[in-house]
Design a protein that fits this description.
29% helix; 2 domains; OMP_bac; elongated; OmpA-like_sf; Immunoglobulin-like; membrane; MotY_N; 5-stranded mixed sheet; 5-stranded antiparallel sheet; 30% strand; 60s Ribosomal Protein L30, Chain: A; cell outer membrane; alpha+beta
Length: 294
């Protein structure tokens, strides 16, 4: 039994493809397959490269578009990688345009960029390819990976549609929102309304919200009773805005605390400003949600 397990281990081990120097990894064009998967809060476009690993474009709310690589084997000798935009192999003038370079630390590599990666995926949609070239510490090329845009368009259209419909904020952004106020301010500012609009967009996308807690606080300047009333007016103003834009009143729990529960000392301007706040906490049922805290 021991010899059988040992032989099975060796068989599996040697079946795993090794990353060889001087090799170009590229899936045969007739086998290239791009796939899309996503939800209301996550978009992914990916393809597998033979003997190398998986290449994917990922996007989440309030994060830059990311290019991620997961290799089948550790990149032991590679020191850095350069990402290129490449003309298709049948193009007479094969050219490479550098997009980005990155130091390598592990076999899971992530590029995050609002501009470079967005331009890369847009250009692939227009017929270009992507190339990844790996180098050692002496700037010697080890191997390269070419990713074609064959069979890309349908999945790319799904991915782009998902991108357009993502809320601007994810749960990590909305679960603890803080609106800070000027001294004596009662009504929402335009910036605060923009924050609430983004929250409302999220709430429209997530039907697993159980409760929204609105807690209002003031600094300790002035009369305690007046501060309690001011905190109530601020909390009511936030709640009214949410309700006016379609948030169910039944989800809201409103509490006014006046100058109780400061989170900073009230003996400095900065401390006073921090304490003048309305906090909004969003509670949800994770057992029914398709969003993950990544």
């Amino acid at each position: 039994m021991f010899n059988f397990r040992r032989n099975l281990f060796l068989l599996v081990f040697f079946m795993i493809p090794k990353l060889a120097q001087g090799v170009t990894y590229q899936t045969p064009l007739d086998l290239v397959k791009w796939e899309f998967k996503g939800s209301k809060f996550y978009c992914e476009l990916y393809t597998n490269v033979e003997r190398f690993g998986q290449i994917s474009f990922n996007l989440e709310p309030n994060k830059p578009l990311a290019l991620e690589m997961k290799t089948y084997n550790p990149l032991k000798n590679a020191s850095y990688i350069i990402l290129y935009l490449m003309r298709p192999s049948w193009n007479e003038s094969l050219t490479l345009e550098e997009i980005k370079r990155e130091t390598l630390r592990k076999s899971r590599i992530i590029y995050e960029s609002r501009n470079e990666i967005t331009r890369l995926i847009d250009q692939m949609g227009k017929g270009n390819w992507m190339s990844l070239i790996f180098f050692d510490t002496k700037a010697k090329e080890l191997f390269r990976v070419n990713i074609s845009n064959i069979h890309l368009i349908n999945s790319l259209n799904q991915f782009n549609n998902c991108r357009r419909n993502l809320p601007k904020l994810g749960y990590k952004d909305v679960r603890d929102l803080v609106l800070n106020y000027s001294s004596g301010q009662k009504k929402l500012s335009s910036n605060q309304k923009n924050t609430l609009n983004n929250l409302i967009d999220y709430l429209e996308a997530d039907n697993q919200i159980e409760k929204i807690l609105i807690d209002s606080h003031t600094d300790n300047i002035g009369n305690a009773i007046a501060n309690l009333q001011l905190s109530k007016e601020r909390a009511d103003d936030v709640a009214t805005y949410l309700i006016d834009y379609g948030v169910s009143k039944d989800l809201l729990e409103i509490r006014a605390h006046g100058d109780r529960y400061p989170i900073a000392k009230n003996n400095t301007k900065k401390g006073l400003s921090i304490n003048r706040r309305v906090t909004i906490r969003v509670l949800k049922d994770w057992s029914k949600s398709d969003e993950k805290l990544r």
